[in-house]
Amino acid sequence: MPLMDHLRELRNRVIKALVFVALGMGVGFTVFEPVWDFLQRPYCSLPAEVRNDDGCGLNYTGIFDGFFLYFQVSLIVGLLVSSPFWLYQLWAFIAPALRGKEKRYTYLFVGFAVPLFLLGATVAYFVTAKGMEIMFSFAPEGATALITLPNYLGYIIMMLAVFGAAFVLPLIVVLLNFLGVLPHRMIAKWRRVIIFLAFVFAAIATPGGDPFTMLALGIPVVALFEIAELIAFVNDRRRGRDRDPLAELDDDELSPLDDADSAAGTTPNR
Question: For the purposes of burial, counting CB atoms within 10 Å of the CB of 150, is it exposed (0-12), middle (13-18) or buried (19 or more)?
């Protein structure tokens, strides 16, 4: 297909995806109250002495903060509600470039990625309150926490997104192994570095950066990575990738090339 036809196809797919997201935002405006109550619940579950307030109301400092809160929550709901439709538009654009095996692996990747992302977001939702309690404990005595609406919404969304995306990362390792790009012996060689980087990522990516939240993210990701490595090991054994062609030779045994050179009376160049 010519380049201009690709660009027209991309434009049409993007417009259709935006229409579906806009419709989803309309749904988000109608369900704003229950969704906001759900997102605010970790903050409301904090002890009253931690929040310095008997209620669980958040503060705002700008005239448009309330409107932007509605807009952002509705956008998030819209993206989630319309995800099957805009994901289909994305898939319809890239699918013609994929071969049969790549399409099959993509189906499997999406089928496992969605539950893993939801699992990570669920873990984040339940550790958010404890992470905030730890961070609030560092405030000096007599200080009052004035958490604003944008600040809290950014924090909770970042937690859900980071945990969800981190839980999907080991699945990418499995996908690369199945595609033949990342063999198990390379994963095993760099295992310690990968585990170290997993905890570094957890320390940097989590919004709070407290040890509890870092461990709550790092430990499950390392466990999922170990499962991914086991799957890669079994897959490579099944395909015979890990088999060393010289493993059955003795240290002083000539290779077939040396035997051929000896029979021909020639000496290979060293």
Answer: middle
Maximum alpha-carbon separation in the chain: 94
Those residues whose C-beta lies under 8 Å from the C-beta of residue 228, and which sit 6 or more positions away, are 170, 171, 173, 174, 177, 187
Chain centre to alpha carbon of residue 2: 34
For residue 47, count CB atoms less than 10 angstroms from its CB and return exposed for 0-12, middle for 13-18, buried for 19 or more: exposed
Question: What does the CA dihedral 17, 23, 24, 28 come to, rounded to 10 degrees?
Answer: 150
Q: Please give the Cα distance from 148 to 230 (Å, whole number).
A: 45
Nearest CA among 132, 145, 152 for reference residue 210: 132
Q: Which two tokens stand for residue 105?
A: 């692996």
pTM of the model: 0.77
Cα–Cα distance for residue pair 158/169, rounded to 1 Å: 17
Burial 3-26 (b: 16+ CB within 10 A, else e): eeeeeeeeeebeeebeebbeebbe
User: What does the pLDDT look like over 102-153, one tens digit per residue?
Assistant: 788 888 888 898 899 999 999 999 998 888 888 888 888 777 778 889 899 9
Interatomic CA distance for residues 120 and 168, integer angstroms: 8
Query: Is the dihedral angle over the CA atoms 60, 64, 67, 68 positive or is it negative?
Result: negative
Q: Quick one: tokens of 264?
A: 């021909």
Tokens found for residue 38 = 């759900």
Q: Which secondary-structure segment (H or E) carries 162?
A: helix 149-178
User: pLDDT per residue over 86-107, tens digit each?
Assistant: 888 888 888 887 777 778 888 8
CB atoms within 10 A of CB 113: 17
> DSSP label at 225?
H
